[in-house]
Amino acid sequence: MNARDEQDTRILIVEDDRSLAELLRDEAEEAGMTVRLAHTAETGLATAVSWMPDIVVSDLRLPGADGLALLRKVRAEIPEHTPDVLIITAFGTVSKAVESLKAGAEDFLTKPLDLEHFRISLERILEKRRMREDMGRIRRLMEADSTFRGMYGRCPPMVRLFRQIRQIAKAGGPVLIVGESGTGKELVARALHEESACAAGPFLAVNCAGIPEPLLESEFFGHKAGAFTGAGKTRQGIFAEAEGGTLFLDEISEMPTALQAKLLRMLQDGKIRPVGSNREQQVHVRIVTATNRDIEERVRADAFREDLFYRLETFQIHVPPLREREDDIDLLARLFLAQYAAAAGKRIEAFSPPAHERLRRYSFPGNVRELRNAVERAVAFCQEREIRLEHLPPRIRERNGHGNARSATLLQDGLRIGEESLPTLEEIERRYIRHVLASAQGNKRAAAAILGIGRRTLYRRLEEMGDA
Predict the structure, then answer these.
(1) Can you give the pTM of this predicted structure?
(2) Is the CATH number of domain 345-419 1.10.8.60?
(3) Is 6-142 assigned to CATH 3.40.109.10?
(4) 403 confidence band (pLDDT: 50, 70, 90)
(5) Which of 125, 148, 289, 416 is the most buried (most CB within 10 A)?
(6) What is the distance between the alpha carbons of residues 280 and 275, in angstroms, rounded to a whole number?
(7) How many Å apart are CA 132 and CA 127, to the nearest integer?
(8) Domain boundaries, the chain
(9) Are 366 and 358 in contact (CB under 8 A)?
(10) Phi, psi dihedrals of residue 378, rounded to the nearest 5°
Protein backbone atom coordinates (compact mmCIF):
# COMPACT_ATOMS: atom_id res chain seq x y z
CA MET A 1 0.00 0.00 0.00
CA ASN A 2 1.29 3.44 -0.84
CA ALA A 3 1.38 5.78 2.11
CA ARG A 4 -1.62 8.04 2.36
CA ASP A 5 -2.59 10.90 4.63
CA GLU A 6 -5.19 10.32 7.37
CA GLN A 7 -7.94 11.72 5.17
CA ASP A 8 -7.11 9.10 2.52
CA THR A 9 -7.20 6.12 4.90
CA ARG A 10 -10.03 3.84 3.73
CA ILE A 11 -12.20 2.05 6.26
CA LEU A 12 -14.95 -0.43 5.42
CA ILE A 13 -17.52 -0.93 8.19
CA VAL A 14 -19.56 -4.13 7.93
CA GLU A 15 -22.35 -3.94 10.52
CA ASP A 16 -26.00 -5.02 10.24
CA ASP A 17 -27.05 -2.60 13.01
CA ARG A 18 -27.48 0.45 10.80
CA SER A 19 -27.57 2.99 13.63
CA LEU A 20 -24.31 1.61 15.05
CA ALA A 21 -22.80 1.58 11.56
CA GLU A 22 -23.66 5.27 11.15
CA LEU A 23 -22.19 6.06 14.57
CA LEU A 24 -18.94 4.28 13.73
CA ARG A 25 -18.80 6.06 10.39
CA ASP A 26 -19.12 9.43 12.13
CA GLU A 27 -16.28 8.53 14.49
CA ALA A 28 -13.99 7.44 11.67
CA GLU A 29 -14.82 10.46 9.52
CA GLU A 30 -14.25 12.73 12.51
CA ALA A 31 -10.72 11.28 12.62
CA GLY A 32 -10.28 12.29 8.97
CA MET A 33 -10.78 8.87 7.34
CA THR A 34 -12.80 7.86 4.29
CA VAL A 35 -15.59 5.39 5.11
CA ARG A 36 -17.90 2.98 3.26
CA LEU A 37 -20.65 0.88 4.83
CA ALA A 38 -21.89 -2.64 4.18
CA HIS A 39 -24.55 -4.56 6.11
CA THR A 40 -23.82 -8.18 5.12
CA ALA A 41 -20.68 -10.26 4.74
CA GLU A 42 -21.37 -10.74 1.04
CA THR A 43 -21.63 -7.02 0.24
CA GLY A 44 -18.70 -6.37 2.55
CA LEU A 45 -16.50 -8.81 0.61
CA ALA A 46 -17.53 -7.31 -2.74
CA THR A 47 -16.77 -3.81 -1.49
CA ALA A 48 -13.41 -4.90 -0.05
CA VAL A 49 -12.35 -6.47 -3.35
CA SER A 50 -13.38 -3.49 -5.48
CA TRP A 51 -12.48 -0.63 -3.11
CA MET A 52 -9.33 -2.03 -1.42
CA PRO A 53 -9.78 -0.58 2.09
CA ASP A 54 -6.94 -0.25 4.58
CA ILE A 55 -9.06 -1.41 7.53
CA VAL A 56 -12.20 -3.57 7.73
CA VAL A 57 -14.35 -3.16 10.85
CA SER A 58 -16.76 -6.08 11.02
CA ASP A 59 -19.39 -7.34 13.42
CA LEU A 60 -18.86 -10.99 14.33
CA ARG A 61 -22.57 -11.82 13.91
CA LEU A 62 -23.83 -10.91 10.44
CA PRO A 63 -26.70 -12.08 8.24
CA GLY A 64 -25.44 -15.07 6.26
CA ALA A 65 -21.71 -15.58 6.71
CA ASP A 66 -20.20 -14.26 9.95
CA GLY A 67 -17.33 -11.84 10.51
CA LEU A 68 -14.74 -14.60 10.83
CA ALA A 69 -15.75 -16.03 7.47
CA LEU A 70 -15.53 -12.54 5.99
CA LEU A 71 -12.05 -12.10 7.48
CA ARG A 72 -10.82 -15.35 5.93
CA LYS A 73 -12.35 -14.57 2.52
CA VAL A 74 -10.89 -11.06 2.44
CA ARG A 75 -7.41 -12.40 3.17
CA ALA A 76 -7.83 -15.04 0.45
CA GLU A 77 -9.36 -12.76 -2.21
CA ILE A 78 -6.96 -9.79 -1.96
CA PRO A 79 -3.64 -11.14 -0.61
CA GLU A 80 -1.69 -8.38 -2.37
CA HIS A 81 -3.55 -5.70 -0.39
CA THR A 82 -4.76 -7.43 2.75
CA PRO A 83 -6.58 -4.94 4.98
CA ASP A 84 -6.26 -5.03 8.76
CA VAL A 85 -9.44 -6.30 10.44
CA LEU A 86 -11.09 -5.15 13.65
CA ILE A 87 -13.81 -7.50 14.95
CA ILE A 88 -16.76 -6.18 17.02
CA THR A 89 -19.37 -8.35 18.69
CA ALA A 90 -21.92 -8.39 21.47
CA PHE A 91 -21.05 -12.02 22.14
CA GLY A 92 -17.55 -11.46 23.43
CA THR A 93 -15.92 -14.51 24.88
CA VAL A 94 -12.28 -15.41 25.32
CA SER A 95 -12.61 -18.26 22.84
CA LYS A 96 -14.12 -15.99 20.19
CA ALA A 97 -11.41 -13.39 20.78
CA VAL A 98 -8.67 -15.99 20.40
CA GLU A 99 -10.31 -17.44 17.29
CA SER A 100 -10.52 -13.99 15.68
CA LEU A 101 -6.92 -13.13 16.48
CA LYS A 102 -5.69 -16.51 15.21
CA ALA A 103 -7.58 -15.92 11.98
CA GLY A 104 -5.64 -12.68 11.49
CA ALA A 105 -7.72 -9.96 13.18
CA GLU A 106 -5.69 -7.08 14.59
CA ASP A 107 -8.03 -6.40 17.50
CA PHE A 108 -11.28 -7.52 19.12
CA LEU A 109 -13.81 -5.21 20.81
CA THR A 110 -17.06 -6.11 22.58
CA LYS A 111 -20.43 -4.39 22.76
CA PRO A 112 -21.62 -2.16 24.29
CA LEU A 113 -18.87 -0.39 22.43
CA ASP A 114 -16.79 2.36 24.02
CA LEU A 115 -16.25 4.82 21.15
CA GLU A 116 -13.03 6.10 22.67
CA HIS A 117 -11.68 2.55 22.70
CA PHE A 118 -12.82 2.18 19.10
CA ARG A 119 -10.83 5.24 18.01
CA ILE A 120 -7.78 4.17 19.99
CA SER A 121 -7.93 0.74 18.36
CA LEU A 122 -8.14 2.32 14.89
CA GLU A 123 -5.15 4.54 15.64
CA ARG A 124 -3.15 1.57 16.93
CA ILE A 125 -3.95 -0.47 13.82
CA LEU A 126 -2.98 2.43 11.54
CA GLU A 127 0.29 2.98 13.41
CA LYS A 128 1.25 -0.69 13.09
CA ARG A 129 0.39 -0.58 9.38
CA ARG A 130 2.51 2.51 8.88
CA MET A 131 5.44 0.92 10.68
CA ARG A 132 5.19 -2.10 8.37
CA GLU A 133 5.24 0.22 5.36
CA ASP A 134 8.26 2.08 6.73
CA MET A 135 10.18 -1.13 7.29
CA GLY A 136 9.23 -2.31 3.81
CA ARG A 137 10.52 0.96 2.35
CA ILE A 138 13.80 0.54 4.26
CA ARG A 139 14.15 -3.04 3.01
CA ARG A 140 13.53 -1.95 -0.59
CA LEU A 141 16.20 0.72 -0.28
CA MET A 142 18.62 -1.72 1.30
CA GLU A 143 17.97 -4.42 -1.30
CA ALA A 144 18.44 -2.12 -4.27
CA ASP A 145 21.40 -2.37 -6.64
CA SER A 146 22.91 0.65 -4.86
CA THR A 147 23.90 -1.30 -1.73
CA PHE A 148 27.07 -3.25 -0.99
CA ARG A 149 27.97 -4.70 2.41
CA GLY A 150 26.18 -1.97 4.38
CA MET A 151 27.32 0.87 2.11
CA TYR A 152 25.06 2.76 -0.26
CA GLY A 153 25.85 4.55 -3.47
CA ARG A 154 25.21 4.45 -7.19
CA CYS A 155 27.52 7.25 -8.37
CA PRO A 156 30.63 6.27 -10.41
CA PRO A 157 33.12 6.81 -7.51
CA MET A 158 31.18 4.40 -5.29
CA VAL A 159 30.73 1.83 -8.06
CA ARG A 160 34.52 1.90 -8.51
CA LEU A 161 35.00 1.60 -4.74
CA PHE A 162 32.77 -1.48 -4.52
CA ARG A 163 34.64 -3.10 -7.43
CA GLN A 164 38.00 -2.29 -5.82
CA ILE A 165 36.95 -3.81 -2.49
CA ARG A 166 35.94 -7.07 -4.18
CA GLN A 167 39.27 -7.28 -6.01
CA ILE A 168 41.51 -6.39 -3.05
CA ALA A 169 39.61 -8.55 -0.55
CA LYS A 170 40.72 -11.74 -2.31
CA ALA A 171 44.40 -10.74 -2.36
CA GLY A 172 45.07 -11.03 1.37
CA GLY A 173 47.79 -8.36 1.80
CA PRO A 174 47.73 -5.28 4.07
CA VAL A 175 45.35 -2.50 3.05
CA LEU A 176 45.54 1.23 3.78
CA ILE A 177 42.20 3.06 3.62
CA VAL A 178 42.43 6.83 3.23
CA GLY A 179 39.56 9.27 3.38
CA GLU A 180 38.12 12.20 5.26
CA SER A 181 36.41 11.81 8.61
CA GLY A 182 32.86 10.54 8.29
CA THR A 183 33.24 8.89 4.88
CA GLY A 184 32.80 5.35 6.23
CA LYS A 185 36.31 3.91 6.35
CA GLU A 186 35.35 1.30 8.94
CA LEU A 187 32.50 0.14 6.70
CA VAL A 188 35.05 -0.34 3.92
CA ALA A 189 37.26 -2.34 6.31
CA ARG A 190 34.33 -4.55 7.31
CA ALA A 191 33.42 -5.09 3.65
CA LEU A 192 36.99 -6.15 2.92
CA HIS A 193 36.76 -8.66 5.76
CA GLU A 194 33.37 -10.02 4.68
CA GLU A 195 34.52 -10.44 1.08
CA SER A 196 37.80 -12.12 2.05
CA ALA A 197 38.82 -15.72 2.73
CA CYS A 198 38.98 -14.92 6.47
CA ALA A 199 35.34 -13.81 6.67
CA ALA A 200 34.57 -16.65 9.10
CA GLY A 201 37.16 -15.28 11.53
CA PRO A 202 36.79 -12.30 13.88
CA PHE A 203 36.81 -8.65 12.85
CA LEU A 204 38.36 -6.38 15.48
CA ALA A 205 38.45 -2.58 15.17
CA VAL A 206 40.92 -0.56 17.26
CA ASN A 207 41.41 3.20 17.38
CA CYS A 208 45.16 3.74 17.70
CA ALA A 209 44.58 7.21 19.16
CA GLY A 210 42.21 5.89 21.81
CA ILE A 211 44.62 3.71 23.81
CA PRO A 212 46.99 5.36 26.35
CA GLU A 213 50.55 5.11 25.04
CA PRO A 214 51.93 3.20 28.08
CA LEU A 215 49.37 0.45 27.47
CA LEU A 216 49.70 0.20 23.71
CA GLU A 217 52.27 -2.60 23.55
CA SER A 218 50.41 -4.73 26.10
CA GLU A 219 47.05 -4.10 24.38
CA PHE A 220 48.38 -5.10 20.98
CA PHE A 221 50.75 -7.95 21.83
CA GLY A 222 49.53 -9.14 25.23
CA HIS A 223 51.63 -9.78 28.33
CA LYS A 224 52.71 -12.45 30.75
CA ALA A 225 51.71 -12.43 34.40
CA GLY A 226 54.11 -10.23 36.38
CA ALA A 227 55.53 -8.55 33.28
CA PHE A 228 54.91 -5.15 34.86
CA THR A 229 53.19 -3.61 37.86
CA GLY A 230 49.49 -4.49 37.73
CA ALA A 231 49.92 -7.43 35.35
CA GLY A 232 48.41 -9.98 37.72
CA LYS A 233 47.66 -12.57 35.08
CA THR A 234 48.59 -13.47 31.53
CA ARG A 235 46.56 -11.67 28.86
CA GLN A 236 46.52 -12.21 25.13
CA GLY A 237 46.59 -9.06 23.05
CA ILE A 238 44.52 -7.77 20.17
CA PHE A 239 46.61 -9.56 17.53
CA ALA A 240 46.01 -12.93 19.17
CA GLU A 241 42.29 -12.17 19.60
CA ALA A 242 42.03 -11.46 15.88
CA GLU A 243 43.62 -14.82 14.96
CA GLY A 244 42.23 -16.08 11.66
CA GLY A 245 40.42 -12.81 10.97
CA THR A 246 40.97 -9.12 10.30
CA LEU A 247 42.43 -6.44 12.57
CA PHE A 248 41.37 -2.92 11.62
CA LEU A 249 43.71 -0.23 12.96
CA ASP A 250 41.99 3.14 12.64
CA GLU A 251 43.95 6.40 12.84
CA ILE A 252 47.16 4.45 12.15
CA SER A 253 49.04 7.73 11.61
CA GLU A 254 48.73 8.37 15.37
CA MET A 255 50.56 5.19 16.38
CA PRO A 256 53.74 5.96 18.41
CA THR A 257 56.98 5.31 16.52
CA ALA A 258 58.17 2.72 19.08
CA LEU A 259 55.12 0.57 18.37
CA GLN A 260 55.45 1.12 14.63
CA ALA A 261 58.68 -0.91 14.62
CA LYS A 262 56.97 -3.85 16.32
CA LEU A 263 54.04 -3.67 13.89
CA LEU A 264 56.47 -3.69 10.96
CA ARG A 265 58.15 -6.82 12.33
CA MET A 266 54.80 -8.54 12.73
CA LEU A 267 53.89 -7.71 9.12
CA GLN A 268 57.20 -9.09 7.89
CA ASP A 269 57.29 -12.45 9.68
CA GLY A 270 53.79 -12.88 11.12
CA LYS A 271 55.06 -13.21 14.70
CA ILE A 272 54.43 -11.29 17.93
CA ARG A 273 56.12 -11.39 21.32
CA PRO A 274 53.94 -10.67 24.40
CA VAL A 275 55.40 -8.26 26.95
CA GLY A 276 57.51 -10.23 29.45
CA SER A 277 57.74 -13.35 27.24
CA ASN A 278 60.87 -14.93 25.78
CA ARG A 279 58.96 -16.68 23.03
CA GLU A 280 57.48 -15.43 19.82
CA GLN A 281 53.96 -16.42 18.82
CA GLN A 282 52.82 -17.00 15.23
CA VAL A 283 49.60 -15.22 14.27
CA HIS A 284 47.55 -15.27 11.09
CA VAL A 285 45.82 -11.90 10.89
CA ARG A 286 45.06 -9.59 8.00
CA ILE A 287 45.94 -5.97 8.80
CA VAL A 288 43.69 -3.21 7.47
CA THR A 289 44.55 0.36 8.48
CA ALA A 290 42.92 3.73 7.95
CA THR A 291 43.70 7.41 8.36
CA ASN A 292 42.02 10.73 7.66
CA ARG A 293 45.37 12.56 7.66
CA ASP A 294 48.03 12.95 4.98
CA ILE A 295 50.17 10.02 6.08
CA GLU A 296 52.85 10.80 3.48
CA GLU A 297 53.23 14.22 5.08
CA ARG A 298 53.68 12.41 8.41
CA VAL A 299 56.40 10.32 6.79
CA ARG A 300 58.20 13.45 5.51
CA ALA A 301 57.96 14.93 9.03
CA ASP A 302 59.58 11.77 10.49
CA ALA A 303 56.43 11.12 12.52
CA PHE A 304 55.71 7.86 10.70
CA ARG A 305 58.13 5.19 9.52
CA GLU A 306 58.62 5.22 5.77
CA ASP A 307 59.25 1.46 5.61
CA LEU A 308 56.02 0.77 7.55
CA PHE A 309 54.08 3.11 5.27
CA TYR A 310 55.20 1.26 2.17
CA ARG A 311 54.37 -2.07 3.83
CA LEU A 312 50.89 -0.94 4.83
CA GLU A 313 50.01 0.51 1.44
CA THR A 314 50.47 -2.75 -0.45
CA PHE A 315 46.89 -1.96 -1.41
CA GLN A 316 45.47 1.51 -0.95
CA ILE A 317 41.78 2.41 -1.10
CA HIS A 318 40.49 5.98 -1.31
CA VAL A 319 36.99 6.56 0.08
CA PRO A 320 35.39 9.51 -1.77
CA PRO A 321 33.96 12.41 0.26
CA LEU A 322 30.23 13.08 0.00
CA ARG A 323 30.78 16.30 -1.98
CA GLU A 324 32.08 14.07 -4.81
CA ARG A 325 28.93 11.93 -4.55
CA GLU A 326 26.20 14.49 -5.18
CA ASP A 327 23.97 11.94 -6.90
CA ASP A 328 24.05 9.77 -3.75
CA ILE A 329 22.82 12.46 -1.37
CA ASP A 330 19.17 11.77 -2.30
CA LEU A 331 19.59 8.03 -1.81
CA LEU A 332 21.32 8.36 1.57
CA ALA A 333 18.96 11.06 2.84
CA ARG A 334 15.88 8.95 1.98
CA LEU A 335 17.42 5.88 3.60
CA PHE A 336 18.24 7.74 6.83
CA LEU A 337 14.80 9.38 6.82
CA ALA A 338 13.06 6.00 6.56
CA GLN A 339 15.24 4.53 9.33
CA TYR A 340 14.88 7.37 11.83
CA ALA A 341 11.20 8.01 11.13
CA ALA A 342 10.42 4.33 11.71
CA ALA A 343 12.47 4.30 14.92
CA ALA A 344 10.64 7.41 16.17
CA GLY A 345 7.21 6.08 15.17
CA LYS A 346 6.64 9.10 12.90
CA ARG A 347 4.96 9.24 9.51
CA ILE A 348 7.48 11.39 7.64
CA GLU A 349 7.69 10.48 4.00
CA ALA A 350 9.83 13.03 2.16
CA PHE A 351 11.81 16.25 2.13
CA SER A 352 10.15 19.46 1.01
CA PRO A 353 11.59 20.88 -2.24
CA PRO A 354 13.49 23.69 -0.41
CA ALA A 355 14.95 21.22 2.12
CA HIS A 356 15.85 18.79 -0.64
CA GLU A 357 17.56 21.51 -2.65
CA ARG A 358 19.52 22.75 0.36
CA LEU A 359 20.82 19.26 1.08
CA ARG A 360 21.99 18.91 -2.52
CA ARG A 361 23.79 22.27 -2.44
CA TYR A 362 25.52 21.78 0.90
CA SER A 363 29.15 20.62 0.81
CA PHE A 364 28.97 18.27 3.88
CA PRO A 365 32.47 18.66 5.32
CA GLY A 366 31.48 15.97 7.84
CA ASN A 367 30.51 13.66 4.96
CA VAL A 368 28.01 10.80 5.40
CA ARG A 369 28.18 11.04 9.20
CA GLU A 370 27.10 14.69 9.04
CA LEU A 371 24.23 13.88 6.66
CA ARG A 372 23.04 11.06 8.92
CA ASN A 373 23.13 13.32 11.99
CA ALA A 374 21.33 16.11 10.12
CA VAL A 375 18.49 13.79 9.10
CA GLU A 376 18.24 12.36 12.62
CA ARG A 377 17.90 15.90 14.00
CA ALA A 378 15.33 16.85 11.36
CA VAL A 379 13.18 13.82 12.19
CA ALA A 380 13.30 14.71 15.90
CA PHE A 381 11.99 18.24 15.22
CA CYS A 382 9.53 17.39 12.45
CA GLN A 383 5.85 16.90 13.40
CA GLU A 384 4.55 16.89 9.82
CA ARG A 385 4.58 14.60 6.79
CA GLU A 386 7.74 16.08 5.28
CA ILE A 387 11.06 17.51 6.41
CA ARG A 388 10.99 21.27 5.93
CA LEU A 389 13.86 23.74 5.69
CA GLU A 390 13.50 24.84 9.32
CA HIS A 391 14.00 21.27 10.54
CA LEU A 392 17.53 21.10 9.13
CA PRO A 393 20.57 22.19 11.22
CA PRO A 394 21.34 25.93 10.99
CA ARG A 395 24.71 25.36 9.30
CA ILE A 396 22.92 23.59 6.42
CA ARG A 397 20.02 26.06 6.23
CA GLU A 398 22.31 29.07 6.11
CA ARG A 399 25.00 27.90 3.69
CA ASN A 400 25.15 26.98 0.05
CA GLY A 401 27.40 24.29 -1.37
CA HIS A 402 30.47 26.53 -1.03
CA GLY A 403 29.84 27.55 2.55
CA ASN A 404 28.60 31.01 1.56
CA ALA A 405 25.85 32.08 3.94
CA ARG A 406 24.71 35.16 1.99
CA SER A 407 22.49 33.57 -0.68
CA ALA A 408 20.90 31.18 1.82
CA THR A 409 20.11 34.08 4.18
CA LEU A 410 18.55 36.01 1.32
CA LEU A 411 16.39 33.03 0.41
CA GLN A 412 15.31 32.58 4.02
CA ASP A 413 14.56 36.21 4.92
CA GLY A 414 13.21 37.51 1.64
CA LEU A 415 15.14 38.69 -1.43
CA ARG A 416 14.94 42.33 -2.52
CA ILE A 417 15.20 42.88 -6.25
CA GLY A 418 15.02 46.54 -7.17
CA GLU A 419 12.19 47.95 -5.07
CA GLU A 420 10.27 44.68 -4.80
CA SER A 421 10.55 42.60 -1.62
CA LEU A 422 9.75 38.97 -2.31
CA PRO A 423 8.26 36.94 0.58
CA THR A 424 9.68 33.62 1.68
CA LEU A 425 7.90 30.38 0.81
CA GLU A 426 6.98 29.99 4.48
CA GLU A 427 5.33 33.43 4.53
CA ILE A 428 3.40 32.64 1.35
CA GLU A 429 2.16 29.42 2.97
CA ARG A 430 1.00 31.26 6.10
CA ARG A 431 -0.87 33.84 4.04
CA TYR A 432 -2.55 31.17 1.90
CA ILE A 433 -3.65 29.09 4.90
CA ARG A 434 -5.25 32.17 6.45
CA HIS A 435 -6.91 33.07 3.14
CA VAL A 436 -8.38 29.57 2.72
CA LEU A 437 -9.58 29.50 6.33
CA ALA A 438 -11.28 32.87 5.88
CA SER A 439 -12.88 31.69 2.62
CA ALA A 440 -14.20 28.62 4.46
CA GLN A 441 -15.63 30.93 7.15
CA GLY A 442 -13.45 29.33 9.81
CA ASN A 443 -14.55 25.76 9.05
CA LYS A 444 -11.30 23.82 9.59
CA ARG A 445 -12.61 20.60 8.04
CA ALA A 446 -13.51 22.43 4.81
CA ALA A 447 -10.23 24.38 4.87
CA ALA A 448 -8.20 21.18 5.28
CA ALA A 449 -10.06 19.61 2.34
CA ILE A 450 -9.29 22.65 0.13
CA LEU A 451 -5.62 22.64 1.19
CA GLY A 452 -5.36 18.90 0.59
CA ILE A 453 -4.04 18.11 4.07
CA GLY A 454 -5.45 16.34 7.13
CA ARG A 455 -7.15 18.33 9.88
CA ARG A 456 -4.51 17.33 12.38
CA THR A 457 -1.84 18.72 10.07
CA LEU A 458 -3.85 21.94 9.72
CA TYR A 459 -4.17 22.25 13.50
CA ARG A 460 -0.39 21.82 13.85
CA ARG A 461 0.28 24.48 11.23
CA LEU A 462 -2.09 26.90 12.94
CA GLU A 463 -0.39 26.25 16.28
CA GLU A 464 3.00 26.98 14.71
CA MET A 465 1.58 30.17 13.20
CA GLY A 466 0.05 31.21 16.52
CA ASP A 467 -3.46 31.12 15.03
CA ALA A 468 -4.81 28.09 16.89
Answers:
(1) 0.60
(2) yes
(3) no
(4) very low
(5) 289
(6) 10
(7) 9
(8) 6-142, 170-319, 345-419, 423-468
(9) no
(10) -60, -40
